[in-house]
Batch of 2 targets.
Target 1
Amino acid sequence: MSRSHLNRLIKKDAAPAVREILRLMGCAAGIYDSCGMLLAGVEAGCECAEAAVSLEGKVIGKVRGSRAAAPAANLLSFLLEEEIRKKRLVTEALDKDSDIRLLKEMAEKMADAEDLTEVAACVVDEATAAIESTGASVMLINEKTGKLEIVAAFGKKFSPRPVLKPGVGIVGEVILTGRGEIVNDAQSDARFVPGSYKISSLMCEPIVFKEDVIGAINVSSARPMNYRAADQRLLNLLASQAASAIVSARKMEQLRAEMPLPEAVTASSEPFSIGLESGALNIPSEPPATPPPKDAPRSPGDEAKEMGIPESLMDCFGKMQGSTLEPGDACHENMAVLFSDIRSFSEHMGSMNPRQNVDFLTRYVKCIRPVVARYGGFVAQWVGDGQMILFPETKTGVADNALKAAIDIQKKVGEFSRVQEDALRLPVAVGMGLCVGPLTLGVIGFDSGLISTVIGDTVTAASRMERLTKRFGIKVAVSERFVASLKNRSLFTFREIDLVELPGLEKTFSVYEVINADPDGVRAAKTQCIGAFKDAVEKYRAGEFTQALRMFEKLKSHMPFDRVTDIYLGRCAAFLRNSPPKGWVGVYRLVE
């Protein structure tokens, strides 16, 4: 590197000054590199004076000629030092600008990610985009077990490694010491714990919040790499930015778990008003029903009503309508499952006191319940700001009813949000994931009463689909099987957005966006670009990243609001810098 510095200085950066130096020396004079190769001037005899050219204390060449050799060498050394100083200033300025852009992008993405997994996925995406790697992961300390768990990852098909404890493996030591590490020869490091695929080089940085290490972020490469301090600095920036977002997401999950259910969850299924106050949208509300005395006799079917199970489903349990459900009752049915979640709920909670939070949820329930009932569905579960809604089989089609309900709920939520904004409150948006298939609906008994439970892969898949709506910035996501089960598919407009491997499920899913749920302008733009978007995704899956990148850039000019296009632009750029692992088929892996 020093030799190239001297050569470039003489022939490019300071060529006029060098020529003037040689002229002033007056006799045969030459400038040589450290190997004795002549770089400028003419060959000078061995009897001529000679002086060293140095850079940062290291001799990188010499000047041979007249007595002026020494001042000439000193001048060249000074010019070299100045060149290096200027380049470092430029590099530092560029690094700072790059850091600012990176932190800004991270902040914008994390602002929409209140779910812990979504925050971690943002960190992994930024790490793989900024640093050459074939794998990356975010590991956090489980607050209950004290063990390290992978929250999000990128790379080959995930096969869990043994759960690590602080102090075990390279990442375990980073957790204990709180100091990041670069290990360019991981296989020869005695601390390295092998995983499901080869790692030759890796970097690990602790995630620290208020001096407490809460986890670590890792990037790795299957090929030998020479990771440097600059790479580690980028990883440290990502870890620092992620720390507070991770802590906030954890607190949000705890608040959701502790959030009391609104009264409307157990109220009757009669229509309710929409709005901030009674009649805010000129829709009359019915007075609340007077609760029965505590010692009043219970009629058959009371248990089913309290659990949200409609009496029409009693025959599924092998019981007559009006019968009583008992602990252990269960039925296995084909149903559509809709998971719904209020976006940015932490912001809503932060802007209200506890009573206002519950009131907000109650009004939201009143907004959507009539739509659910209209299409034959029922709310099976409420958890804070999230709901699981089931749609039993009907002659009109279980998937059709569920999807119509999802689209109409989005419209109602739009009205609800406008009322919120008119009252100078935060707007409301929801994401929904739908799947259809077999599930088990059962009754569990406790001393305090009965509760219903719903289990099965269909439930798991629908929950994961809802999580993907946050990831892709869409309103409604459905599975490929759901689309295939529709009786009147022509009524709806879909866009296949990704192939996804979901945790807890062996199958790879094609995820579709339901464009009908979008506002008119957005829906029109997406519909117009469906063909071009499909072609771009096919190029991406075929590994033709340069062409795919150009196609997505063109799509971005037509759909500047589309986060899915942004995600593909980032993926293409990352894969152009660093090819995907062998065997890659375009599958995105959602990790718990």
Note: The chain has 16 helices and 18 strands.
Target 2
Amino acid sequence: MAEEAKKVEVTKDIAEEKAVVPLPAPPSQHDDSKAIVLVKDAEATGGSAERDAYLAKIVSEKRLVLINAWEESEKARAENRAAKKLSYITSWENAKKAEMEAELKRIEEQLEKKKAAYEEKLKNKLALLHKTAEEKRAMTEAKRGEELIMAEELAAKYRAKGEAPTKLFGLLKA
């Protein structure tokens, strides 16, 4: 359809250009010094063969101009398509990058929460360990205190009776 329109346009231009080229004027016998004199073109004096060659040259030049215009148009379209595609790719890349950065941040937050929970758990275990150690120390101190009091009471009892203990340090017999 576009090719037909171009052909029709070219034939119209050829017809218009044929009408524009002036024909040679017939020789006149008048000798008016103030009369308008037509200047003859160099191409027009050669006859129809030169005119046809000139028209063919014009048609050829017009065709070349149309081809060049089409080529420039196609190049511009290709550039626009490539620019649009590159823009799409860049926006896609930026969106994916933002998505991955958000995922990374979310994972980091989860890891921070897990780390805090694990630290809390270890602190609780450490506190429990310290509490247990304190309880064992207290029990040992209490038992030592009881044993000291018992040893003092037994020593007082043996002193009161005037007897010697039958076992020394629980190992030796007297």
Note: The first strand starts at residue 167 and ends at 168.
